[in-house]
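Narrative progress, year one. The postdoctoral researcher (J.K.) led the effort to move from monomer predictions toward full complexes, under supervision of the PI. The following entry was the first complex the group processed end to end, covering 1008 residues in total.
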Amino acid sequence: MMSRITCPQLSEKITSAEAAAAEITLGDRVAMSGFTGSGYPKEVPGAVAVRAREAHAAGQDFAIELWTGASTAPELDGVLAEAGAVSKRLPFQSDPTMRRSINSGRTEYVDTHLSHSAQQAWFGFYGNLEVAVVEVAAILPGGLLVPGSSVGNSKTWLDLADRVILEVNSWHPRAYEGFHDVYYGTRRPPERLPIQLLEPMQRIGDPYLRVDPSKVVAVVETNSPDRNLPFKPVDEDSAAIAGHLVDFLRHEIGAGRLPAHLLPLQSGVGNVANAVMADLAASEFEGLTAYTEVIQDGMLDLLDSGKLTSVSATAFSLSAERAADFNERIESYKGRILLRTQEMSNHPEAIRRLGIIAINGMVEADIYGNVNSTHVMGSSIINGIGGSGDFARNAYLNFFVSNSLAKGGAISSIVPFASHIDHTEHDTQILVTEQGLADLRGLSPQARARRIIDSCAHPDYRDRLRDYLDRAVSANPDGQHTPHLLAEALSWHGRYQETGTMRA
Amino acid sequence: MMSRITCPQLSEKITSAEAAAAEITLGDRVAMSGFTGSGYPKEVPGAVAVRAREAHAAGQDFAIELWTGASTAPELDGVLAEAGAVSKRLPFQSDPTMRRSINSGRTEYVDTHLSHSAQQAWFGFYGNLEVAVVEVAAILPGGLLVPGSSVGNSKTWLDLADRVILEVNSWHPRAYEGFHDVYYGTRRPPERLPIQLLEPMQRIGDPYLRVDPSKVVAVVETNSPDRNLPFKPVDEDSAAIAGHLVDFLRHEIGAGRLPAHLLPLQSGVGNVANAVMADLAASEFEGLTAYTEVIQDGMLDLLDSGKLTSVSATAFSLSAERAADFNERIESYKGRILLRTQEMSNHPEAIRRLGIIAINGMVEADIYGNVNSTHVMGSSIINGIGGSGDFARNAYLNFFVSNSLAKGGAISSIVPFASHIDHTEHDTQILVTEQGLADLRGLSPQARARRIIDSCAHPDYRDRLRDYLDRAVSANPDGQHTPHLLAEALSWHGRYQETGTMRA
């Protein structure tokens, strides 16, 4: 069996997770690899959590700032949040324990566009980075690193950190070599150059991450799977949303506004994304491509179906079964999948040039098409904005999708005024619920409102939304652009908080 | 005197504004040149307005859709709105009569990112374009056009329109030739290429607009000045805002996060922008550059001072005196000023690469840093988002500036919840009022709120903002990320609507 560590200088640094964790001290800014539950370090975070618990038991402070690519897993966000070891978190998370830590005020959270995180760290906007903890599939001579199932911000963390801890996880196939494209052409203004990327699968970087071996303070060997959440079968509502969306793509081809092979697809994580992929797999479409953040089960299925020729992303997010299957058949995917740094997968320059079709979930939209992607009832964070803003703003077409109802009908996802706004009316183009699709391009706010209510709102709430709009129109003779009743605008959320339902 | 029209084929099309206006019919989509009151057609719009009035007097419908670069002037937006001749308007306006027409519901308004307007029109998202009316300084053989004081969307309007009307305005110096860079490398996805722009003054296009002479149905000769609003002397509050902002730039240089010559400047239109330019002109800075939308008096002064070496923009917006002076001394500015299409001046790819320092005004910000740039009390539009989103999202640093008070203190520009959101918490970095500057980079929402209230809010409103935040924190034990009291969040605006003041 081939050794995973063939760099003599770094072989000498092999140690335990506990010894590695001793390199991390109170107040450090610690940046870890990991994106949508893949490619995150599996053991050092737990060892840091043990240190934190011991310190706290002894009456001492112990907390770090935690930076990642995006969301990780219970072995990282979960254990560190549980141990009360994270004072500040960025740029994205989706872990239940970390979410509680943020919403209870124990952890400060800086919810950042994913394309902004690496560059802003490099610009020095977040302070000095003391430690990077990066999981890889192999270490080659000279400090070349073969990433595993995600790239995320690892390139930047390795570049910036004073000290580096590597986890070499032999669960990742050694054959990951050749699946990555790490762009080393980044510069800070005013020295920046055009990114010469012309099509989704073009290689513009190196197949390896690089680390200065003299900065590496510890190498930890692991053999542990990624998070690998169970795949949920496509439900009826998700299938309906996907149906509306794919029909609309056909309509746009017919109108001459999309080529027959579409444009590169991006889809956020979740059930609807998988449903869209399933719909496309069963469709007449051919020769599709994807330029996205995350490869889920549905996208691998679409690739297997032959409808999708290739996919560029920054990470996988697979079920356990699909991950095991992928790891077994990995060689068959080589040349059809490329994992990039998240500053390239989400780069405005690339997204706008390639003309992406962007599909992202939402929590709620208001009648004018302002979208909330992050908060429940204005105050509590769910996950974060992630890459949805990078993609929506720069896409050729953007879709925001949601069921029209939540909590068994107690919540309408179409509301008079969004309780938090992550994507403004200037950015949102097409909203889709299981009820239908609202194409908002080129419409004024009032026309948008009529279309959203008619096409997307659940019938149980439609009349009340129309009533709100009608009364707002009447009450604002000099405010017909975006008529609102400010005293009532957030009352649907207030009613839910007081009575448990938005229903009258 | 050199003739302004040396294209034989187009000389034959010279006619009156009235005859030209007859080419525009009910329901046409009509795209006109013009950006911040410069380079807009001066006579044809008025002749269209006369037609509209005559039709209306005869009991007939007459309205058009009106597209432009950005804001125009009374002779365009004003007369057409006054005549009730505009059914839909995009992508930006700032005319008092047009604003009333929108807010009274006579005109639908599609408030669009200025970098999106040309491409989305080309993609077909707004429908077929029947007529373009474009003002130029001269017509050369073969349909080459010398633009005047703005470029805006003229390139796209000339490309897309079925029929073209040209106004040749001899008020613009003939010496404008050589001041423009019209990028003809645009393509639609999936054929797009990198924009090979590496520094603000680089020429990547042609010095001329192009028109297919066979599409030109009329040429109208005019001699009429641009809007040229009076220059307002810098007031005390604007000077204070500029002072905080320029001091902060010094601080960032000291911290190693900005080079000594800064990075290219962008500044929105207005008094604060002029104040910042005045502060820089009196400062120790040297070798500055600008990559912006609009050149105001203050920026010309800065150029004259020698502190600013050059400026790329898409339009001028000068006082009458400064315009007259510029027109007289235009040759002395050649090589130091370049006017581009607005899709290039505002292009995310260029803005992110060059690393712009973006300075834009705001109407209000909420305590978490969500910014309203467009609406009064949620319902009425003021102007529009313009390029503020293009610049803020992609800038190296972005500033949003405002006085802390409006309406003699009856309105606080820092509020619990913004009544409209154009720039979200994910995008806004630095807020400045005459009270001080809040650097929000890398802060969680609660930390942002404390800093905004302490640094930017007027002392008259600070305690009540703190009280709102404190009570929101107490009321949301499980919503500590962005604590709000939804029943109260918009009550400050409601109080203003009911009592004429936000004061308690």
